[in-house]
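Much of what follows relies on a compact textual record of a protein's fold. A record is reproduced here so that you can trace the correspondence yourselves:

. . .
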Amino acid sequence: MAGQALARTVGCTVRGFPVRVLGFPLCRGRLKKEDWDPLVERFQRRLAGWKGKLLSYGGRLTLLQAVLSALPLFFLLVFRISVGVLDRIETLRRRFLWQGTQEGTAKPHLVKWSTVCLRKEDGGLGVLDLRDMNRALLSKWLWRWLHETDNPWARTFQDRYGGHGTNARIWPTVGARASSLCKGIFSDSAEFEQAVRWEIGMGEVTRFWTDVWCGDQPLCAQFLLVYALVRDPLETVRNCWTVEGSGGRWSAALRRNIFAPEEASQLQALADRLREWEGQFGVGADRPRWAPKPNAGFTVRNSYIWWRDLGPVTLACGNPEKIWSQKIPRKIKVFLWLLAQERLLTRTYRSKWRGGDDVQCGICGAAPETAIHLFGECRWAQAL
C-alpha cells in the first residue's frame, strides 16, 4: 500500500522484478532462464526475415559473423551466460550456418562447432566463440578494477565484498552470499591473473609468490620446492623486504629450515634471481600491465585471443592461409575449406549419416565417392 501511495505521488507505476534498465534485465538474485528469452527472440526474429536456404555457405558465414555473433554482446558485457542459454543460442547459429533455416528436415552439420570457431590461421572459420567472448568482455571489468580503484562502481563492490587493500587482498571475496553480478565478473579473477604482470612501485599490493613480477612466471612456479615451505603464500613484495640501515635484504618466512640439497639449491637460485631487485622500489602504487601484449596493452580483442589460447589448439587443416589469402569469392573459400576438411556431402559421407549401400562414384563408378577421390583420384577429374 505504501508503494502504491508513493507511485501516485510521483506519477509512476509499480512493477515487479525483473525490470529493464538501459536494456539490461534488473532482478533480485541471479537471472533465470526465461529472463534471457528476449535475447533468444531477437535471434529468432532476425532469422525469420532471412532466406537462408537461398544463400551459399559464404553468404551465411558473412551474416553469422556480422550479425548473429554481435547480437548478444551487449548482454555478455555484464552478465555471465549460463550453459543452457548458450546452448540455445549456439543451436540457432549452427542451424543457420549448415541448414539456412530453423524449420524443415535436419541437415548434417559438416564440421563440429569447436572447429568452426577456431581462428582461420588455426584451420577454422573464425566464428566468434561466445563463451570465450563472454569471458573476454567480463575481463574488461577485471582490468578496470585494477586501475579504477576510486570509481563509484569499484567502491560499491569494495565496501560490500572487500578487495583493493593491502596484504594481497586485491580481488573481492566472492562467497556463497555474493550477488550473481559479482560472481559473474570476478569468478575468473584467478585465471585472469596469469595475464597480468606487475611493475613494482611500493610493493604493497603485488604478491611476492603468486603474482608475475620477477620473470615471466610467478615465483611459486619457478621455485616449487621453496614455495612448498612458505608460511604465508600471500605475502606482498614489500613485506618480504627487510630494511637494514641504508639498504635491506629479502626474507621470506618458512615453516622449517632447509635440509635437502635440492631445496638449498632452489633457495640459492631464488636469491640470485632477486639480487637485481634489491632496493629497486619505486614511488606510488604497483602498476599492472597486460603481459601477452605489453606494447598494445589490454583490449577486448587481445583478451579474447588470450582466452582462446588458454585451451589446446590443434591445426584443423594444413596450410589454411593458402585458402583465405586467395582473391576469390568467399563461397569458394568455404568450399575449399570443406574440401580440406574432407567434409563435402559425398555419397560416402551421406551413407554414414543416413545409411545406404550406394557409395560408388557417380562419375566413374570405380571407387567409393569421397572428397579425395572426386578431386584427385577419379580418372575424369585427372583428365580435367
